[in-house]
Amino acid sequence: MARKNAAQKAAAAAARTVEEEARAKDQGTSNELDGADQDDERPAKKSKKQQHRKDKPWDTDDIDHWAIEPFLPPDDPKSITPFLEESSFATLFPKYREVYLREVWGAVVAALEKHGISATLDLIEGSMTVRTTRKTYDPYIILKARDLIKLLARSVPFPQAVKILEDGTSCDVVKIGNIVRNNERFVKRRQRILGPGGSTLKAIELLTQCYVLVQGNTVSIMGGHKGLKEVRKIVLDCMKNIHPIYHIKELMIKRELAKDPKLANENWERFLPKFRKRRDTKGKKPSDGGFGAAEGSGVNAISLSGEEKKEPAKKKEKKVYTPFPPPQLPRKIDLELESGEYFLKSSERQQKEEEKRKAKQQAATELKAAKRAEAFVAPEEKEARAVVGKEKKEKKRKREE
Known about the structure:
Oligomer: single chain
Mean pLDDT: 81
Structural class: mainly alpha
């Protein structure tokens, strides 16, 4: 009996240990699952840069951080604190603008008074001046007023120039007078900016959303900062003999690419045209299967007008090298000594020059008379065509006789 009780006790103890192990195992797995859930619920570890930054519930995605807020005057005019110093700008204007400025100056003063700026027109000195007053509330408006008088001096009409006082509108005056020295070349290149009937200028204004005015040695531009940069590049390149049509094509392609959202973050270089400056290769003819022969408008191919290009000039033969300098050319006095004119009196010399002049005049008169007489010379008449059936009539008449 004692043995049996001992065996039962051992079996019960073994069963108890097995149950405890199973219970401990289940408890461990449940703890692991709870720990995993807690890890999932924990926020991801912030980087060192974002560690001390807190959430801003008032900063939502629908807010445009780049929007320019209008600088409005305070509700109470008495609360305006005057500036510590008075700022002023002055600019000269040409004489031909005096009549127009006198007509519109009242409107200029009224437009600037709304912003607390005083304007003065000095017709004796030929200058316009703007300065701040105690009513000025916007510290940047004085620079806008300076741009206004600068545009008025450069022949921009007042209804267009007053738009410079608006936010988001800037101006630029490009000086083109000192880029090209030759006056004829300067006029031709300046005319390229305008184009036939102003078509090129209109295309530039539509593509850049800017106002452009070509006047004298300057080009006045009004618009956004991006448009000002593009127009300045077009104008300077045009004066350096790069036609504006190339930039217009590029801007048109960029405008079409901007409409595609897929290409917003891609490089557009592969879509833009690449224009190379054409050069005439001296002494080289296009080969039968070469680049010049394949293209109709190549460098050495037939021109677009249909005329064949002239053959290149033959190379000059190299002269034999001599270490001695070339012989000295005779002076004017030496030539006079050889001809004997040096020993003539002043009256004789004048008489000789007069005779030369009259002989030259006589030759020119005869040449002009001969050209006038050519108009009265009858042209050579061609032989008359034979009358059809004349031979038959003659034969018939002979038969009758």
